[in-house]
Amino acid sequence: MKPIERSCLEVTRRHFFRDCGIGTGKLALAGLLANELQAAPPTPQASSYVDPLAPRPPHFPGKAKAVIHLFMAGAPSHLELFDNKPALTEMDGKPLPASVTEGQRLAFIRSDAAVMGPQFKFARHGQSGMEISEALPYLSKITDDICLIRSCHTDQFNHAPAQTFFQTGFAVPGRPSFGSWVTYGLGCETKDLPAFVVLSTGSGISGGTGLWSSGFLPSIYTGVRFRNQGDPILNVTNPVGIDQTLQRETIDLVNNLSRMQLEESGDPEITTRLANYEMAFRMQSSAPELMDLRSESKATLDLYGCDPATPSFARACLLARRMIERGVRFVNIFHEGWDAHSDVAGNHRGNCKTTDQASAALVTDLKERGLLDETLVVWGGEFGRTPMVESNAALGRSRGRDHHPKAYSMWLAGGGIKPGITHGATDELGYNIIDKPVHVHDIQATLLHCLGFDHERLTFRAQGRDFRLTDVHGKLVNEILA
Known about the structure:
Blueprint: H1 13-19, H2 24-39, E1 66-71, H3 78-81, H4 86-90, H5 98-101, E2 122-125, E3 130-133, E4 146-153, H6 159-168, H7 178-186, E5 196-200, E6 224-225, H8 244-265, H9 268-291, H10 298-304, H11 313-325, E7 330-334, H12 344-368, E8 375-380, E9 384-392, E10 397-404, E11 408-414, E12 421-423, E13 425-426, E14 433-435, E15 438-439, H13 440-450, E16 460-462, E17 465-467
Parallel strand pairs: 1-7, 1-8, 4-12, 4-15, 5-6, 5-7
Antiparallel strand pairs: 2-3, 4-11, 8-11, 9-10, 13-14, 16-17
Helix pairs in contact: 8-9, 11-12
């Protein structure tokens, strides 16, 4: 028999009870059983959720428990800051020998461009006698607490690929970032704040959000970007009319539904959803407390050069210390603006004024609070700058330096790193490495070692094979390990 077709306006409650296929008896039984089910203890399935950010032991006891990465996006010039080359002053205005630049790819200049001498004076500091530029007067005071590497090199010579390479071990976006690998391996020691926090204090980041992405790892390990002012995360404050009780009941309802879906599908992204809802609820009280710097002493604020009410690199560094104190595992501060294709002296003078005091203060503050031994501080960019000058009237450029992946400098401090040493060396022109080269993958392997990981064993299976941060390269730089 052909079924009778009715419009929705013709369907009554009687039709529903007749046609729903359940019957009023079953509905009544379900209602009677509901109270018993609510009173019953949770089933094993309902309690099978495992916190993906629960603290986990590394492969072996690591000296560091957390990382603060001060990433100087845009690539500071090693020749102006860390690697004094008097020979460049003598050759100023002359071309480099063709044998030096043979086979080198350059981004914006010709290989026969004229040499430009260092734009700042250098002096030796501390018991270590480390040679540092006059542009970094605050760093010069803590040279005995840092390890300066003058022999870094990378495979990439443009900003976005080089930044992505340093942060993820691969030049193309899509791999997990360094902070994601660390939180995947160690979990987190706080439930009130994200495990991996990202701050940005410059003019933009060439590599984009892929620099703190979790890639093919579960998305719970993605970095959480905090804003520079106001609520650190949008909507962390409840709208008018929503109190904490209603917020808690709403989250509990959503989480119960998510757990049911997790048991059915096993989708790991549901675990991320559960963790994020809980984190968002707790952050409604923890985030405002974190961002309120009124509890900091005037001496501490002066140490960093920090105005609590003004977004700045100094404020970000002070917040990073507060996050580490509260159990955050990884803090990445991106300061964009070092790309000095023109006026390298003015560019670096300004950026050093913005970052030098707070960078040094962070190391000093961590040390005074007994936190430096278990916190890695990393300072550096994606590559170096050429000894040759960049001048281009059409682009309005003069007295700048081009991209240089073959040699650059960075410094490390804290957990597991030997202080007061200078590692590696470049030639007299600062162009090629002549002693103890350190590849980006070597840096990554060494930092993971300080955290207690064998970089070849910290892996995740995706796309049919096991991946790692250092891919298939990287070796420990044993000479810089404490």
